[in-house]
Amino acid sequence: LDHLKFISEKPHFVSSSAHEEVREYLVAELEKLGLEVEIQEAEVLGQKNRTGTKVRNILARIEGSEPGKALMLLSHYDSEVSTSFGASDAGSGVVVILESLRAFLEKGILPKNDIIILISDAEELGLLGAQAFVDKHPWSKDVGLVLNFEARGSGGPCLMFVETNEGNEKLIQAFNEVNASRPFSNSLFYSVYKLLPNDTDLTVFRKNADVQGYNFAFIDDHFDYHTAQDSFDRLDRNTLQHQASYLMPALAYFSMADLNDLSADTDLVFFNFPGAGLISYPFSWIYPMCFIGLVALLFLVAWGMKKQVLSLKDMAIGFIPLLIALSIIGLGSFYGWKLLLKIHPGYQEIFHGFTYNGHLYIIGFVSLSLWFTVWLYQRYLKKRSAINLFFAPLLAWILINFAFAAYLPGAGFLIIPLFTGLVVFGLFILTPKDSTKKIIAATILSLPMLLITVPLIELFPIALGLQMILIATLISSLWLLLLMPIWSSFAGLKNLNKLFLITAILVFASASYTAGFDKDSKRPDSILYVRDEATSKGYWGSRDLHIDEFTIY
Fold it and tell me: Where are the alpha helices (DSSP H) in 8-127?
């Protein structure tokens, strides 16, 4: 925190005096650790957005005891070109590297692999420092693996996602050997990341040098990203500690591991599970698992009909509430957010799409979707058994997983909730009579599904903006329907459902009350000066939809 307080004292974008002060500070701190520091100076024209500048990368190297590929620790020290103090982006990554190096060197263990430290420059201008290193520095040919530390917010759990040109099998297997205490990762993160325009310094290593690595980044409290609120005081200390909890064991493991060949032909579906690290299996398993799920469902249906527990007519009718629920919830959340943008036009000025009270809206929309799902199904459950109505959601989950297999294979782990639902389906067919033991057993079987899926409900709107609240509500409704045989048997279901509705009302009221801006939730402003040297003319510009007094005067 002492390091971070100094680094984030002022905005330190490229060419500012504070930028030079931060560079001198980092050089001095690395030298205190007994490292010989080099400043790489190079003029770079960016590949991504055609920006150019003179970069000054900070480099150091710890010699290993054996020949082979080196481990690189990577983050950037420039802040965004505005008023950002750069505490999270990426002061957090810089100080995690500094402190982890100090602790590592304090042990006096000689690593097998060389460790290269790159605190890059001009990342915010288009990854220019990383480009200068990869394209122009001789050490770039020595790098076998990169650990990159980044931030796109100021709080929340630190995510790990691999970045590779080939299969991820060896990287996932190696990460399990790291044995990080609280990993938060799954293969869906990188699948979604690849669809977005976002890049990190690690992307340059992957594209220009075919070097693989891990990104460690946190993305919550997105409203602070690239603003004056990316400050020392607003960075969540638990988030910083979580980021450090990756590097300490990773540094110990990868400084001794074989980094000469981490390429692989196989991609793995993976997800974290408490106490088990990353659970993984090949992409090639996804289609067979989907077919197994379909065959298992058809077998259970035949079994249930033979036992006269299931009815074709009632199972067919079960598609009516499913389609109504998904349609109303999808349209309601999509246009509901559009309506809120009209009611609170200030939300449109938040460029990143996640409002200061965004977590309240997630709770509100999800609670409302759960209420509507239960309210609708209660009407059908009066005449039909839950086990008959359960067929339609199970088939929907199978179809969704076939779609994932074709278009988003990183989401292949969402077949696990389906298998949980099939086991519960079989349990209720086997023992059709109501019993407390059956409900308890089904509840216990469903807990792993909750641990896998519930974090995604919050993560999608945080990562992609509140316009993605539609995904969160649909996941919530489908998740609830996989628990239908359990909650449909609750004696106090009506009261539980009233609680969903009351929660939604109170949360939306609270969100409206906190919709404005204040000193702790500042209104974003954008202003830009551009000078055309060819005509000697200057222009002021802004991306603000509504010009305010600050922008005008």
Answer: 17-32, 93-106
Identity of residue 485: P
Residue of 98, 119, 77, 143 whose CA lies nearest to 247: 98
Supply 139's token pair: 């050490």
Lookup result for tokens 């922008």: 551
Residue 126: pLDDT band with limits 50, 70, 90: very high
pLDDT given at position 455: 86
Task: Check: CB of residue 127 under 8 Å from CB of residue 46.
Answer: yes
Let me know if 383 is exposed, middle or buried by CB neighbors in 10 A (0-12, 13-18, 19+).
Answer: exposed
What is the four-CA torsion angle of 498, 499, 504, 505, rounded to 10 degrees?
A: 70
**How many CA atoms are closer than 13 Å to the CA of 35, on its beta-carbon side?**
26
- What is residue 143's three-state secondary structure? strand
> Does an H or E element contain 340, and which?
helix 319-343
Cα separation, 425 vs 58, in Å, equals 59
Backbone phi and psi for residue 57, each to the nearest 5 degrees, phi listed first: -80, 145
Q: Model confidence over 442-486: pLDDT tens digits?
A: 888 888 888 888 888 888 899 888 998 999 999 999 999 999 988
Q: Which amino acid is at 127?
A: L
Cα 167 vs. chain centroid, distance in angstroms?
20
Residues in a beta bridge with 71: 115, 145
Distance of CA 452 to the CA centre of its chain: 14
pLDDT digits (tens, 9 = 90+) for 200-217: 999 999 999 999 999 999
Alpha carbons 169 and 282: distance in angstroms, whole number: 8
Q: Which two tokens stand for residue 305?
A: 């009909």
In this structure, the dihedral spanned by the alpha carbons of residues 439, 443, 446 and 451, taken in order and rounded to 10 degrees, is 170
- SS3 (DSSP) at 147: strand
Among 97, 118, 110, 63, residue whose Cα is nearest residue 250: 97
Position 144, amino acid = G
Nearest to 349 by CA among 536, 503, 543: 543
pLDDT value of position 436: 79
In this structure, of 68-82, 274-288, 408-422, 433-447, the range with the lowest mean pLDDT score is: 433-447
Q: What is residue 83's predicted lDDT score, i.e. its pLDDT?
A: 86
Question: pLDDT value at position 11?
Answer: 95
pLDDT at residue 79, rounded to an integer = 96
Average pLDDT over residues 58-78: 96
Q: What does the alpha-carbon distance between residue 270 and residue 428 come to, in Å, rounded to a whole number?
A: 30
C-alpha distance from residue 374 to each of 379, 493, 494, 496 (Å) = 9, 9, 9, 9
pLDDT of residue 434: 67
Q: What Cα–Cα distance (Å) separates residue 233 from each residue in 217, 219, 222?
A: 19, 17, 15
* Three-state secondary structure readout of 481-527: HCCHHHHCCCCCHHHHHHHHHHHHHHHHHHHHHCCCCECCECCCCCC
pTM, two decimal places = 0.91
Residue 97 CA to residue 139 CA, distance in Å, equals 19
Residue 186: DSSP 8-state = B
